[in-house]
Amino acid sequence: MSAAGLPQGATPFLGFGRLLRRYGFPVAPEQVSGFMQAVTLLGPRSMADIREAALATLAPPPDRRDEFEAHFRSHFYGNAAALVEGDADEEARIKDDGKTSKQEIEVVRQEEGGELSSASEQLSVREFQRDRDGLAAFRRKLATALPARRSFRTVRTHARGKLDLRRSLREIVSADGDIPSPLLRRRQTVPRKLLILIDVSGSMKHYTSDYLKLAHAAVQGADRAEVFTFGTRLTRITSALRIRDRDQALARAAAQVDDWDGGTRMGPTLLAFLSVPRFSAFARGAAIVILSDALERGDHAELEMAMRRLSARAFRLSLATPLAGDPRFQPATAALRAILPMLDDLVDGSSIAGLTDFILSLARPAPVAAAIWKRVS
Amino acid sequence: MPKRSARTSSAETVATSPEAVASRLAASRYLADESLATAIFLAIRLGKPLLLEGAPGVGKTEAAKAIAELLGRDLVRLQCYEGIDAAHALYEWNYQRQLLAIRHAGEHEVDIYDDRFLIARPLLQVLKAPEKRVLLVDEIDRSDHEFEALLLEFLSDFQISIPERGTIRTTAQPIVILTSNRTRELAEALRRRCVYHWITYPDAIREAEIIMLRAGDVAEATARAVASAVRDIRAHPLAKPPGIAEAVEWANAATILEKGGSPWPEAFRRAIGVLIKDEEDFSSIAPELGKIIEEALA
C-alpha cells in the first residue's frame, strides 16, 4: 500500500501495520484500511479509542495480546522500554508451536546439553536402519488403519443406503416422470483423530528419538494427528512434524522442546494439557497413545485424575511402555496399578516395529488392559 | 414500504457511538464493557461481521441476542457441528413435495423449482431479508474446514448460487455475528474479514451488576458475594470453570434456600450444585469452599 494520496495523519496507522507484520502478526492490507476507518468512525477522542480500534480490526490472537499491547505502546507513545519479546508468564508450562514459530528460521541446537546432541547423533547414525523398520509402510497404511466413526456427511453409494432424493428427482425429471432404479446415499465414515503424547524425561532418553520418528510418520500419514511432548512441561510439536523432510522436522521439534531428559511430572503436565480447551477438545473421541514408562515421582493422585479425564474423553486410551519389553514385566508400581483400570491397552513400547503394529491395530477390538494383565499375573 | 426503510436506517441511527450502543445493550439487559461496545459499534458501522471469541460461558451467544434486540431484528441462529454442510446451512429442496407435485400435475406443466419447494436454511433466510434479521453463526470452531471455506465465501459476497435457480444476491449488508470457543484456530482469512473481540470474564463489580440484572430477586450483598466467590473459584484449575449463567443461577438458588430457612454460608454451600457440575471439580474445590465463601461474604 503506498502512502501517496493519503493525508499526513494516516502514516502512523500504516506504520503500525508494518510494524506488526515485522513481528510476525498476520495483518492484511484490508485490516489496516479497516483500522483507519474505525479510527475515523470513533472520532478518535482519545488514545483509548485508537487502541480499541486496533484490537477490533487487527485481531491479535489472544495468546499474543500482551505482545500486541507492548508494540502499540512503543509505536504510538514512543515508549520503547515497554517492548517485551513475547510474553513468558502464561506460556511457562504450555508451549504451543502453532502460530508464533512460523517466522523462526531453522535453529538446530547443538552442544547445549550432552543428551540432546547425542540424540541427534543417534538420529543420523541409525537413519538407514530405521527405514527398514517399516516407517514408510506405516505411514502409507495409517490413513486407512485408524479406527473410524460415522460422519454426518453422506456419500453416493450403490448398495446399503438411504434414498438420495435430490439425485433421484433429477433422474425422474429427465426420464419424464418414469422412476428408474433409485439412487442411494449413505453416511460417510471418517478416521478418528490420533493423539500421541511422548514422554521426554530422563528415564526415557533411549527411546525418545525413535518415538519422534514414529510421530513424524504418524503426522505425515494420518489425516488428523497431534503430537505433544511432556516431561516437566508440555510442548506441542505437531506443526514442526508437518515438515515433510524428516531430519528437518525432527531438528525443529527437538529445538522446541525445552525439557529434554529432565524429571517427570506426568500428572501435572497431563492436567495442563486438559485445561487448555482446544487441546482437550482434540482428545475427545480420539485414539490416544501415551508413550511413557509412567514412572511418576511422588504422589500419583494427579496422574490418576488426569488419566481418568483422558479416558473419559478418548475413544481408546493406550499406554505403551518400553518396560513391557521385558518378559518379566508386571504393572506393579503404585502409579501403574492405579491407572491400569482406565487404560484400554498397556503394551510394549520398546521397539518401533512393535509400536507401529500396535497403532495399525487400533481399529480392531481388544480386551481392556486390566483383563489382560490380571490373567498374566 | 416506508416502514421497512425506517428500519433500514435504524442500524446507523442506533449505533451513533460506542456509549450509545452500550446503553442500548443495557436496556436489553446485557452489560457490555467499553471494548465490547466499541467492537459492536464498529461492526455495525463498518458493515463487517463480528467475531466473538472467549471461554465457554462468558456470554457470547447472549451478546448476539442482545445485538439483535438492540437493532429490533429477529435472530437467526446457525449452530455449527462437525459435519455441517450446505444442506443444513444454505438451502434444501423439499423433494417429497416436488414428487407429489409432479404426480399431481399429470399432463400439466409444473415448475418444481418454485419458491414453495425451497426450504431456506439460516444463511438463505438472512439473505432474503437482511434488514429484518441478524445472523448468528454459533460455535464455528466446531465445524470443519470445508464449512469454514463455504462461510468465507458467503461472508465476502453475501450471495448464494442455487444451480436450478441462479444466484440470489442481497442489496443491503446483513449483520452477522460469529462466536467461537477457540477449541481450534480459525482460518486467518476468516479472522481478518471480521471485527474481532476476545470476551473475558467480567470483573467482580460488573459481574455483580449482571447478577442483579439477570437474577430474579437477589439482594445486592448476595450478588457481590457471589461475584467475588465465583472469581476465586475460577482461579482454580477446574475442568469446567463456572460461567456467568451458572453464577446467576447460584445467586438465585442460594437466595431461595435462604428464604427456606438456611443461614447464609450454609445456603451458598448447599446450592453449589448449580455452580459446579463436575464431580471431580467439586471434590477438588470442596476443602477450600468454606474459606472462599467466608472471604466473599466478609
Helices and strands of chain B: which structural class?
alpha/beta
Which class of secondary structure composition applies to the elements of chain A? alpha/beta
**Which regions of chain A have little confidence, pLDDT < 50, spanning 5+ residues?**
84-92, 99-130
Q: What oligomeric state best describes the polypeptide chains here? A: heterodimer
Total number of strands of chain B = 9
Q: From the alpha-carbon coordinates, what is the Rg of chain B to the nearest angstrom?
A: 23 Å
Low-confidence stretches of chain B: 1-8
Summarize model confidence as the mean pLDDT of chain B: 88
Shape of chain B: elongated
Gap from first CA to last CA of chain B: 59 Å
Q: Using CB atoms under 8 Å apart, which protein chain pair has the greatest interface?
A: A-B, 44 and 45 residues
Share of residues in strands of chain B: 5-15%
User: From the alpha-carbon coordinates, what is the Rg of chain A to the nearest angstrom?
Assistant: 26 Å
Number of strands of chain A: 10
Task: For the largest sheet of chain B, list the strands in their spatial order.
Answer: 2-5-8-1-9
Q: Helical segment tally of chain A?
A: 16
**Largest beta sheet: strand ordering of chain A:** 1-7-6-5-8-9-10
Helix content of chain B: 40-55%
Biggest sheet architecture of chain A: 7 strands, mixed
Taken from the alpha-carbon principal axes, the silhouette of chain A is flat
Helix content of chain A: 40-55%
Characterization of this structure:
The complex is a heterodimer of chains A (377) and B (298). Chain A has helices at residues 11-22, 29-42, 47-58, 65-76, 114-132, 135-145, 165-174, 208-221, 238-241, 246-256, 266-275, 277-283, 301-313, 334-339, 352-360, 369-376; strands at 94-96, 148-157, 162-163, 184-191, 194-199, 225-230, 234-236, 287-291, 316-321, 345-348. Chain A is an alpha/beta fold and 377 residues long. Chain A has a seven-stranded mixed beta sheet. In chain A, a hairpin with a 3-residue loop joins β6 (225-230) and β7. In chain A, α1 (11-22) packs across α4 (65-76), α2 packs antiparallel against α3 and α8 packs across α10. Chain A is flat. With 298 residues, chain B is α/β, with parallel strands linked by helices. In chain B, 53% of the residues lie in helices and 14% in strands. Chain B has helices spanning 2-14, 18-27, 34-46, 60-71, 86-89, 95-105, 122-128, 145-157, 188-193, 204-214, 220-234, 244-259, 264-270, 279-297, and strands spanning 50-54, 74-79, 91-93, 118-120, 133-138, 159-162, 166-169, 175-180, 195-199. In chain B, α10 crosses α11. Chain A binds chain B through residues 26-28, 30-31, 34, 37-38, 41-42, 48-49, 52-53, 55-59, 61-62, 65, 98-99, 151-153, 165-166, 168-169, 172-173, 177, 271, 274-275, 277-278, 281-282, 305, 308-309, and chain B through 18, 34-35, 38-39, 41-43, 45-46, 48, 51, 53, 55-56, 81-85, 93, 95-96, 98-99, 102, 112, 141, 181-185, 188, 191-198, 237, 239, 280.
